[in-house]
Amino acid sequence: MAILDEILDRVSRTRASGRLPVVVFDLDSTLIETAPRHLAILREFVAEAWPDPSVAEVVAGLTTADFGWAVGAPLRRRGVDSPELHEALIRFWFERFFDSDYLRHDTAAPGAVEFVRAVVERGGFAYYLTARHLPEMGLGTVQSLIKLGFPYLDGCSTLQLKPSKSDGDAPFKRAAHAAIAALGGEVIATFENEPGHLNALLDDFPAAAHVRYGHVHSPDAPAPRPEIHHIESFRLA
Ligand SMILES: [Mg+2]
Q1: CATH superfamily label, 3-31+109-231
Q2: For the segment 98-111, what is each residue's pLDDT rounded down to a tens digit?
């Protein structure tokens, strides 16, 4: 049985045994794609801050499929590598990427909405754990989850965001494991794009299935431990 089906099966069986099945989901680059946000910001950058027709032409030819971790990488691959441009772009990007207004560009990973719904329909509890920070991104995140159709307003989910932009992602996520355990249920599975976070989840929830989604991760990420599964899509067969 494919790992996604196995997880759904385990959710059903855990619920039938009277325990609360908990499934943990990261948002960015797991349930939600960040490429549309990168592309929107890059288009604004060439329109407002870097008036160079040759760069604008390159940007006009980009699609969401061109983006991975770093907003500037698609430009570098096309020979646009001026250090001044990339420094200005990173500053421009940093002021916008972590802002609720830009989360309107969010799109769901293929099959992600249907998979989270399937977890909840089987009696599972969806725990959205994200390093998006509450003051600047909380409202936009709630609006985005609802707009995209993820379970949210049904009492079968919760959303935990980082209290402050300056907190480190890894310590924040690690500390959240205690809150997840405090639900008193059984952690069935976790989904993440970052191998480092997955390795920590495996340490604290060894009986759960841990699943890495896709190929986007931070440049200094450690290798995922061999027990960690990998999927390219949330679509059920
Ligand atoms: Mg992520």
Answers
A1: HAD superfamily/HAD-like (3.40.50.1000)
A2: 999 999 999 999 99
Ligand 1 center–CA 80 separation, angstroms: 27
Tell me how far the alpha carbon of residue 170 lies from the centroid of ligand 1, in angstroms. 11
Give 27 Cα–ligand 1 centroid separation in angstroms: 6
**In angstroms, how far apart are the furthest CA atoms of the chain?**
63
Ligand 1 centroid to residue 54 C-alpha, Å: 33
Residue found by looking up tokens 């935990």 in the block: 160
Ligand 1: centre distance to CA 168 (Å):
13
**Per-residue pLDDT tens over the stretch 156-214:** 999 999 999 999 999 999 999 999 999 999 999 999 999 999 999 999 999 999 999 99
Which residue, among 206, 171, 211, has the nearest Cα to 186 in the 3D structure?
A: 206
Distance 97 CA to ligand 1 centre (A): 14
Domain residue spans of the chain: 3-31+109-231, 35-104
CA 145 to ligand 1 center in whole angstroms: 15
Closest CA to 214 of 200, 193, 198, 229: 193
Give the Å distance between the CA of 17 and the centre of ligand 1.
32
Residue 201 to residue 228: CA distance in whole angstroms: 10
Question: 3-state DSSP helix/strand/coil percent for the chain, to nearest 5?
Answer: 50, 15, 35
Span from the CA of 185 to the centroid of ligand 1 (angstroms): 24
* 192 touches 213 (CB < 8 A): yes
Query: Quick check: pTM over 0.70?
Result: yes
